[in-house]
Amino acid sequence: MAFSDRFGDDPGHNQALWTRDEANPVIRAGAAWSREFVAPCSVHEIDGRLTLFAEGGESERESIGAFVCDDPRTAGSVWTPYPSNPILQPAAAGFDRGSVFDPAVISFQGSLMLYYSATGGGPHEFAESTPGESDAPLEPEYVGLACDTGGGFERVATPVMEGRCPAVIEWQDLLYMFHVKVVRGGYHIHLATSRDGLEFHDVQDEAVLEVGASGDWDSYTVTTPKVFRDDDHFTMLYAGDSKRIDDPTGIGVAVSRDLVEWSKHPGNPVFTTGAAGQFDSVSVASAVPIIAPGGWQILYGGSDRSVEDGLHSQVGRAWLRE
């Protein structure tokens, strides 16, 4: 059964289908490169092992690390950090000198491609700026690229596009890049395509996934898209909220036949924040799906503090059984 077909029209019922892992958070903040927070971003099989690419950081500096797991589909499985973490840090100069985060990894045309969000300043300056607050113009946010052809990741000197929070999928020899941009205060999800992984072109001017109507749970922001093939269609998991841009409180599902036209599930949000006092009580985002025996699981970023109060995201795991 497709992931998206497991949910009905009642959000409360859908949210009750999940079982949070008793070991949560399964990856904790506190390492040297992820002292204050760590969040999952994408998974990719490398040398027969599933690798999780994650963002982490402290204060206004974010870097990218990786974790491996021999059998991530079973309860109690452990994600082990790369000894070389972080695998990508901010550059000494250039468009990505401030922070690098949101890694999206895919094998494409013989190379392992790592797309990432990049800022010249703090990772949240652009989103949290108030129009007219300062005369100093803010630098755009970019999507950068680092390629590994066998000797480690080497970054491309210039960004591939403006935007942030990339998610990539290949279909019919095209690379589809979902990314977010700030529109009227909140994030909206846009789409661009590429034949070589370097030069991207917008599919359309407007977003492919907009915020919801006034009063909806996702009426202010939609962000952290994760897109995957789901039986005979495509499914997107995305985070959303009705009040804050970077503190989403729910995860929604959308489906598409062509990766351009998307329909939100009527039973959204299918997953929400945890109970008071839990590590994910304030926000949940970046839900990475993994097929598991008897069902699915997601790895997700959960925080008990808002971005304004000092983000404290850690990686949780939740199981969606048959």
Q: What can you tell me about this protein's structure?
A:
This protein is mostly beta strands and 322 residues long. It has one domain (3-321): Glycosyl hydrolase domain, family 43 (Tachylectin-2, Chain A, 5 Propeller), CATH 2.115.10. Helices cover 3% and strands 47% of the residues. The strands form 5 sheets. Strands 6, 7, 8, 9 and 10 form a 5-stranded antiparallel β-sheet that branches. Strands 15, 16, 17, 18 and 19 form a 5-stranded antiparallel β-sheet that branches. A 4-stranded antiparallel β-sheet has the order 1-22-21-20, with no helix packed on it. Strand 3 and strand 4 form a beta hairpin. The longest helix is centred in the first third of the chain and has 5 residues, at 11-15. The N and C termini lie close together (9 Å). 44% of the residues are buried.
